[in-house]
Amino acid sequence: MRQGRNGIKVLGLMLIAALAVMAFTAAAAQAGEYKINGSTLTTLGLASESVEGTVAEGELLVPGLSLNINCKKGTFTGTIKKGGGASAKILYSECEVLGNKFCKTYETKANMESEVNAGNLVAEGSGEIILMGEKHYLLVSSGASPFTTVYFTKSTKGCTLPLEETVSGSTVFLLPTALTSLVTQTVETIPQATLETLFATDILKYGNQTAWLDGGKTSVVLSGANKGKPWSGE
Question: Mind listing the pLDDT tens digit for each residue in 179-225?
């Protein structure tokens, strides 16, 4: 009986700690706003501005399936919005399933069936900029639709993975230089341990498996009417 009581006490302390972290996160996180040349989009009377950029090599990791999809590069297009919102679409290229040379990724089901444009993968979603602990983050969500559906090579070609799988849920990226007015801003993935500590409820899913993003640093510039101008967040 004593051991059971100790177990209950431990669980109680764990619950209190978890609630404390959640309370801290909720209290500390504040909605952010975008600025162009030092003025907010609201001040400038802009509802939105287009952005574009490039994505460095990165990986989608699915530990539960020992799956690692590596993409060498990507291109980025999107929109930043008044009030801190954002939407984006990324086309990854030169993707491969590490450890499985027979599996290629395809952007669409039609591409997979026709076996054209192998190595591509497209993802899109929406998000918002938030300020927490004097750092800017970008919280992104797939919403009602998945970020992407990954289509793989047919099994007749030697690939042992299911023909298709969705990636959905939510995750958080770091905006390391958002407080500094720069022509090029960067978006970076966050280590798994940090995500689990600060954003425990924001979980990326590959099917029903927890997934993580590693690498894939993105460089973003304004591409609309304010192309070439420095921008930042607050």
Answer: 999 999 999 999 999 999 999 999 999 999 999 999 999 999 999 99
E runs forming strands in 64-203: 67-81, 85-97, 105-106, 121-132, 135-141, 148-152, 164-175, 185-187
Rounded to 10 degrees, the C-alpha dihedral 216/126/23/174 comes to 20
Q: Which residues contact 132 (CB under 8 A, 6 or more apart)?
A: 25, 28, 29, 30, 198
CA 126 to chain centre: 10
pLDDT the model gives residue 17: 36
pLDDT of residue 49: 98
Q: What angle do CA 24, 34, 93 make, to 5 degrees?
A: 95
Q: Tell me the pTM.
A: 0.84
The Cα-based distances of 128 to 116, 171, 206, 210 in angstroms read 35, 11, 22, 22
Q: Which residue has the tokens 């990636």?
A: 167
The tokens for 57 are 């090599």
Interatomic CA distance for residues 108 and 127, integer angstroms: 24
- DSSP state string for 163-185: SEEEEEEEEEEEETTTTS-BSSE
Which pLDDT band, with edges at 50, 70 and 90, does 29 fall under? low
